[in-house]
Amino acid sequence: MAGADSRDRTGGGPLLQRLGPPVAVFAVTRVLVLLCVFRLIVLPGVDPASDVTVLYHSWFEVMRGGSFPLHDVTWQYPPAAALPMLAPALLPFLDYTSAFIWLACAADVVGFGLLLRAGRDGAQGSRGMAGAWVWVLGAAMIGPTVYARYDLQVTVVAMAALLAAARHPRVSGALAGFGAMLKVWPVLLLVGTPPGRAGRRMWAAAGIAVAAIALFFTTIMPGGFAFLTFQSDRGTEVESLGSLVFHLARRFGHWHGGKVLLNYGSVEFLGPYVSVVSHLALALTAIAFGWLLLWRLKARTHTPATMCDAAFTAILLFTTTSRVISPQYMIWLVGLAAVCMTLRASVQAFPAVLVLVATAVTGAEFPVLFHDVVTSSSMGVAVLTLRNGLLVAASLIACRNLWRASVSRAPHIPDAPQAEPVPPLRRRPSAEAPHR
User: Fold this and answer.
1) What is this entry's stated membrane topology (predicted)?
2) Residue 315, CA atoms < 13 Å, CB-side half-sphere
């Protein structure tokens, strides 16, 4: 019986043999990421940790005094974002940047552990270690940026929310609400909530979490929602889908009077026609939202993977159509793709592979080739076109797969049991029957 106890529930090989390879690759890749982010291995291009060293640290100093950065337009986050910014104070023996990086690494370990646990839970119809492998490889492909932005912590919260949905709907909803107060986008996790009581519990728990967090920060720190006014004058970020218009125009000398500047915390195009492209991006986002609403109204089939598949599709759509596609946005997609891949019922395997390829391209684009992107060189435009093209393809295929799985496919209705045929009655001869 000892041999049987050492096997996982899915009936595969010994548990240690299944966990060993992803754990080993995780350890090796994360050591390399740490060496890069601490600049012990120096990659060409910009310093990926500059946002932590400059922006996050400056916000930390302001918030430590009891207020949000009310007059800093680069602060564009909900109030709970103060928590990861202030968290380095828990490690006073380290400087701010080092403490932030190590806490991000700890969050990475937590996310990996959640996926390992989900991968060996055969009762949930898992794909084994596929989800863990997506996280191991995808997060490593992003490179040092993965530990130099707080998006990793937000993604781990979102992953935990989705993984808890089947057994603990209230916990799942509360985590989604908490994630939304960290960086807004996790509210889209709720687009595919199951029908009935479980879905209502998720929405109620999310609403309570959002209200409680908003009340807490409004009470103790003024300016928690000032970020809502810091978005109106944004341009088109140089890595977004819409930016390709200006990159190509610059290459062929057809865009005059425009420039590339650091604006609202990112490098953006500013000048003629930028507002037109930005409004088109917002229109595409509105169309994406309309499609999701239509899907929600039309969906007839709900599997254990539908909520994860819908969340992945929603984040893909809103990332691809955004005016800003910063490298750290790929962390969101990798995390949700990894959760989808823990479930055999998921229909998003191919879009998840496309996201992994797009993530690898992004890891090359930033920080290594970022100067080429900013200057619209041939290499920069080619890399950006490939990455954004992969995201567009992944978005369209994810929408098609989700629609086919939950709208086009009729729900399975078990056949009604059929009664046993009744044999014909036979008349038994009666002793009292009259003789002819």
Assistant:
1) Multi-pass membrane protein
2) 31
Residues 6+ apart with CB under 8 A from 201: 169, 170, 173
378 phi, psi to nearest 5 deg: -60, -45
Taking residue 155's Cβ as centre, other Cβ atoms within 10 Å add up to 31
Residues of the chain with pLDDT under 50: 1-12, 122-124, 412-420, 422, 425-436
Phi-psi region for residue 267, left (φ > 0), alpha (ψ -120 to 50) or beta?
A: beta
134-170 residue pLDDT tens: 999 999 999 999 999 999 999 999 999 999 999 999 9
Beta carbons of 122 and 130 less than 8 angstroms apart: no
What is the spatial distance between Cα 225 and Cα 232, in angstroms, rounded to a whole number?
14
**Which residues are bridge partners to 269 per DSSP?**
236, 260
Q: What are the tokens at 337?
A: 């793709």
Q: Classify each residue of 392-413 as buried b or exposed e, where b means 16 or more C-beta atoms within 10 Å of its C-beta.
A: bbbbebbbebbbebbeeeeeee
Cα–Cα distance between 194 and 343 in angstroms, integer?
16
Quote the CA–CA distance of 320 and 393 in Å, as a whole number: 10
* pLDDT (tens digit per residue) in 273-304: 999 999 999 999 999 999 999 999 999 999 99
Is the dihedral angle over the CA atoms 22, 28, 34, 37 positive or is it negative? negative
Q: What is the 3-state secondary structure (H, E, C) of the chain?
A: CHHHHCECCCCCCEHHHHHHHHHHHHHHHHHHHHHHHCCCCCCCCCCCCHHHHHHHHHHHHHHCCCCCCCCCCCCCCCHHHHHHHHHHHHCCCCCHHHHHHHHHHHHHHHHHHHHHHHHCCHHHCECCCHHHHHHHHHHHHHHHHHHCCCHHHHHHHHHHHHHHCCCCHHHHHHHHHHHHHHHCHHHHHHHHCCCCHHHHHHHHHHHHHHHHHHHHHHHHCCCCCHHHHCCCCCCEECCCCCHHHHHHHHHCCCCCCCEEEEECCEEEEECCCHHHHHHHHHHHHHHHHHHHHHHHHHCCCCCCCHHHHHHHHHHHHHHHCCCCCCCCHHHHHHHHHHHHCCECCCCCHHHHHHHHHHHHHHHHHHHHCHHHHHCCCHHHHHHHHHHHHHHHHHHHHHHHHHHHHHHHCCCCCCCCCCCCCCCCCCCCCCCCCCCC
Structure tokens at 421: 């045929």
318 φ/ψ angles, rounded to the nearest 5 degrees: -75, -30
